Amino acid sequence: MQSTYNDCSEIQGQTINGTWDMVVKSCDIMIENIKSKIDDQCKLNSNVIRILDIGSSHGRNSIIPINLIISNVLKQFPSQCFEVYHEDLPENNFSLLFKEISNNKNSYIKLSNQIYFYGIGNSFYNQLVPSNTIDYVFSFSASHWSNYNDSFHYDPDSVSVCRKERSNEYKMYCIDTLYKNFSLRAKELKKGGIFMVTVMNDIESTPIENNTLYQVFRLSKTIWKQIANENLISMNEVDKMILPINFYRKDEIDEALKMVENDYGLKLVTMEQHFQNISDNHSVILSDLEKSQILFSHLNAACAPSLKNFIDGDQNTKDSLYQVFISKFNNHIKETPFKNIDHLFSYYSIILEKNC
Prior knowledge:
Helix content is 44%, strand content 18%. The chain has 356 residues and is an alpha/beta fold.
């Protein structure tokens, strides 16, 4: 991820805040499951408690739920030892992640001298740790990312397909993608372990012209084509620019959950739908331009590394061309900001518990 991610991840942080009651509930379940395995509940839990963070990026948002988990455990086991694993793709800047964890005054490592943290440079579509070793795994604002599939993700007019007709093939692809994510987490969890995940939802009733994210993605492709017309980048590079994102429908989520419970004993505890608004963390009324700028900065922080991968040349070339894109995009929204973007998308918050 790019170096500004921590400063431009407010929307992702809102996802955690919006599901805080469920984070607390899931933590309580994990602690009760751990206590049930200890004969004398006044004794120290001799086993290391391991936490796995999926899609950590640079860590600022990750610190929030980990603080809660560790502090609540320490209330009952003051000398407990913890290991925290932060996962992201290999191209993530793990140096920034480690600096954030080490230097942030609110970091979870300030809670005890028995906390150890590690980085995992791998896709969460692979198993990340040995089986039956994790007590709590969470994934906020990450599960919509998929492995690229040209058949389902290509759109000549947009860098991402936000709304796609559900052919039987695409529907099965979405179910299988969710199932793979869920089943890998089930393998990693201990019995009684918890998986807390958010899944972005495709609301069928929302017309495509009212889908703000799709408007941003369409405009992104348009501006890249303008840059190609100026001979700064080839049209072939622009045509290949794709963000492999899936917006899942409720029946697809339900089917994947049913399959993973049958196959791995990962049982649904609760699932709630939430709506993401861009004004949630702002006490003042924002103009359309201010909302547009905030939205672009947040999406850009998450999407820039993927889009840069399609640009030929060394890193300096990629960075300089991307700055041209940012400048042109910002100039466009200054003249024509997006309208009616308070409601961005919906997502389901899900707590799963491994029973076997």
